[in-house]
Specification:
Bound molecules: FE2/S2 (inorganic) cluster, cobalt (II) ion
Mean pLDDT: 94
InterPro entries: ARHD_Rieske_2Fe_2S, Cholesterol_7-desaturase, Rieske_2Fe-2S, Rieske_2Fe-2S_sf, VanA_C_cat
Number of strands: 20
CATH superfamily of the largest domain: Naphthalene 1,2-dioxygenase Alpha Subunit, Chain A, domain 1
Protein name: Aromatic ring-hydroxylating dioxygenase subunit alpha
Low-confidence stretches: 1-5
Helix content: 10-25%
Distance between the termini: 24 Å
CATH topology of the largest domain: Naphthalene 1,2-dioxygenase Alpha Subunit, Chain A, domain 1
CATH architecture of the largest domain: Alpha-Beta Complex
Radius of gyration: 22 Å
CATH class of the largest domain: Alpha Beta
Number of helices: 6
Number of domains: 2
Largest sheet: 8 strands, antiparallel
Shape: elongated
Order of helices and strands: HEEEEEEEEEEHEHHEEEEEEEHEHE
Domain Rieske: 15-119
Keywords: 2Fe-2S, Dioxygenase, Iron, Iron-sulfur, Metal-binding, Oxidoreductase
GO molecular function: 2 iron, 2 sulfur cluster binding; dioxygenase activity; iron ion binding; monooxygenase activity; oxidoreductase activity, acting on paired donors, with incorporation or reduction of molecular oxygen
Length: 332
Amino acid sequence: MSTEALKDAVLENEWHPVYIASELKDKPASVTILGERVAVFRTAKGSVNALRDLCVHRGAMLSKGHVEGETLVCPYHGWKYDGSGACVCIPAQAKTDKIPLRARAVKYHCVEKYGLVWVCIGEPASELPDFEEFENPAFRPLPCGPYTVRAAGTRVIENFTDFAHLMFVHGGLLGHPDYAELPDFKVFKEKDRVYTSDVPIFQPVAHSGSEAREGTTYVYVKEVFRPLAARLSKRDAATGQTLWILLTVLPVAEKECIVYMAVSRNYGFDVPDEQFIAFQNTVFEQDAWIIETLKPELLPLDLQLELNHKADILSVAYRRWLIELGVKTGTT
Ligand code: FES
Ligand code: CO
């Protein structure tokens, strides 16, 4: 797998999802953001923290150590770092000796939201996207993932904005090739968001060659919030049952990423979460398979390089937005 670092001044200032929050317990974890190794840990009091995964003493990986109270203990010589990155204990020296001010690990911004742990290794350019439906106590929130993809994060987001693949890549699950024609729809742009009007898609029940046209019409709305964060809602037009998915991407390297989803639903509360997770896993495996085969591997930001069709207006708006933002992860 590529370990090539991705230097991108825009992406450095984004919040990236790094962990399922409930799975970050008392053991620290190592994650890679744009080629940078980061240690994330939860203190005894429950706060989440992120430090550069590098002890300033002799370069050990802090994530290989352990949490003690509010500190992360280096596995090599036991130096203890608090959540601000300050070293608060050097076991080899007398308690009365001062700890040098330079004994400090690089601290990164770290928060817990939507069932995920998020880290920004620069200065956050924005707040996390709004996802009211995840926090609404009347709905059922569920984090999904992680899914490792050997592809550029922007390729994953663009695939998520795409409607016309549902009937093919997810044929039988989210659509059917016999019902592939898409209605006209619009794309709107606001300061921090590009989104579509309602897009109804008919999903027939599986039938063996009969003329039956039974099935369900789902109304989709897709939105892109940030270079690496997008959301969809999928509403059953007849019942109003709705599924929301916020899909966010951790860019590990230029051509490698890890995908997390915050999912919420207003129905099926008696259906075990595992069933929803299994369904999302299947859908995402189908997406990953195709995304990993796309060429060029970096998203073409020269709009003349590929043939854009009217069904691709959200993807074109996304590419334009990336150009505007100055994201480097593309082929121009
Ligand atoms: Fe971390 Fe020595 S390398 S304490
Ligand atoms: Co898909």
